[in-house]
């Protein structure tokens, strides 16, 4: 038998090469990859420029001209003439005063009631979900429906409010023609619509406060009122500042409630509850003075900036004062 040939030694396997790590996206795709996050912001800024910045700048441009609604293409340079005529108009100062009065009458009770409702709903109550949902029903109601219903409630002859006042021996109140009474009536509509909305915001802020703070305060013997003053309010300070700013902006731009309360652009027979929003509408679409209406819009914008800045400054100063204690 032939002898078997010796097996030839096999060559050792070649070492496997380590895989090359992938290049980062910025190197693999070049410059455009670093710009991709900004591409997602383009639609927002495009719409904001078209419907926010451009109308604001164009309104400032029109406010320097004499522009009438009948002939919008014919502009006559006036410079600051629209602003001068505005500040010499007594109805402008009446509207400004009414805006401030109605804003205070609606904002302060609204936020106080919202804070109290949120504090009650923060405890473990039965049917909490039902009550929280019910708080949003006034906010979900249209301003037209709410204003028309309240106009019937505050009616002079057949209104429910005067009927209730008559039961306790109080003479009927002329809610639509009296200055103070009409402003209280309009403020009531605003309070009814926005209290529940702000209460839910406060409730969401209260639920972010750690429960350990309340437990420590209870161990120290603090009552619920003192817990509310020294735990809840400090924890809600950013939320309170936010609601105060939003309510201030809404009060400055108040339009639907006073317009539909009686259906008059002038805000009553003696302009007793005409706000800046109604005054702007009256000048622009009642008297056809688009240039003066644009000037009013810019005055309202600057007023909002000043009021919001004052709120932010007061909140920041209080925070610094408490931090320095």
Automatic annotation (TrEMBL):
How the protein sits in the membrane? Multi-pass membrane protein
Q: Which SUPFAM superfamilies match?
A: MetI-like
Q: A Pfam family in this protein?
A: BPD_transp_1
Keywords for the protein's UniProt record, in alphabetical order: Cell membrane, Membrane, Transmembrane, Transmembrane helix, Transport
Q: Where are the transmembrane segments?
A: 38-61, 100-121, 133-154, 295-315
- Segments carrying the region annotation (Disordered) are 1-31
* Listed InterPro entries: ABC_transporter_permease, MetI-like, MetI-like_sf
Q: Where is the ABC transmembrane type-1 domain?
A: 96-309
Q: Which PANTHER family match?
A: ABC TRANSPORTER PERMEASE PROTEIN (PTHR30193), INNER MEMBRANE ABC TRANSPORTER PERMEASE PROTEIN YCJO (PTHR30193:SF37)
Q: What is this protein called?
A: Sugar ABC transporter permease
């Amino acid at each position: 038998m032939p002898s078997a040939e010796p097996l030839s030694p096999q060559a050792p396997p070649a070492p496997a090469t380590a895989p090359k790590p992938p290049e980062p996206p910025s190197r693999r795709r070049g410059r455009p990859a670093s710009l991709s996050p900004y591409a997602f912001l383009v639609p927002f800024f495009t719409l904001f420029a078209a419907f926010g910045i451009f109308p604001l700048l164009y309104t400032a441009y029109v406010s320097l001209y004499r522009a009438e609604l009948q002939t919008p293409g014919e502009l006559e340079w006036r410079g600051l003439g629209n602003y001068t005529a505005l500040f010499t108009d007594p109805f402008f100062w009446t509207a400004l005063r009414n805006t401030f009065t109605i804003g205070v009458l609606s904002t302060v009770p609204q936020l106080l009631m919202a804070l109290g409702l949120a504090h009650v709903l923060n405890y473990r109550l039965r049917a909490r979900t039902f009550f929280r949902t019910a708080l949003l029903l006034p906010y979900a109601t249209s301003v037209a429906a709410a204003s028309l219903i309240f106009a019937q409630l505050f009616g002079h002859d057949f209104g429910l409010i005067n009927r209730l006042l008559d039961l306790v021996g109080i003479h009927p109140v002329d809610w639509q023609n009296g200055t103070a009474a009409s402003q209280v009536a309009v403020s009531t509509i605003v309070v009814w619509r926005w209290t529940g909305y702000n209460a839910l915001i406060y409730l969401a802020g209260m639920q972010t406060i750690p429960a350990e703070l309340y437990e420590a305060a209870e161990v120290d013997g603090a009552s619920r009122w003192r817990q509310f003053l020294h735990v809840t309010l400090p924890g809600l300070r950013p939320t309170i500042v936010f609601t105060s700013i939003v309510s201030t902006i809404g009060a400055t731009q108040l339009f639907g409630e006073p317009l539909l309360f009686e259906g008059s652009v002038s805000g009553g027979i003696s302009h007793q509850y005409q706000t800046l929003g109604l005054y702007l509408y009256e000048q622009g679409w009642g008297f056809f003075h688009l240039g003066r209406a644009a000037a009013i819009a810019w005055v309202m914008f600057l007023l909002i900036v000043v009021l919001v800045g004052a709120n932010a400054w007061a909140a920041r100063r209080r925070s610094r004062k408490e931090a320095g204690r």
